[in-house]
Amino acid sequence: MIGLDNNVLARYMMQDDAGQAARAARPMESLSVQAPGFVSLVGPDRGRT
Q1: What is the mean pLDDT of residues 26-30?
Q2: Which domain of life is it from (predicted)?
Q3: Which of 4, 8, 16, 26, by CA, is between 20 and 30 Å from 36?
């Protein structure tokens, strides 16, 4: 399983910087059923302690 950082996912989806989008595409496009990816979900901090 490949762990994906949220920044990689955002660069891949937004395509806002050609160089970074190309670098983000490599791990994203290597994913398959045999080599799945994982992105952890982290919620926003709403000021609660």
Answers
A1: 92
A2: Bacteria
A3: 16
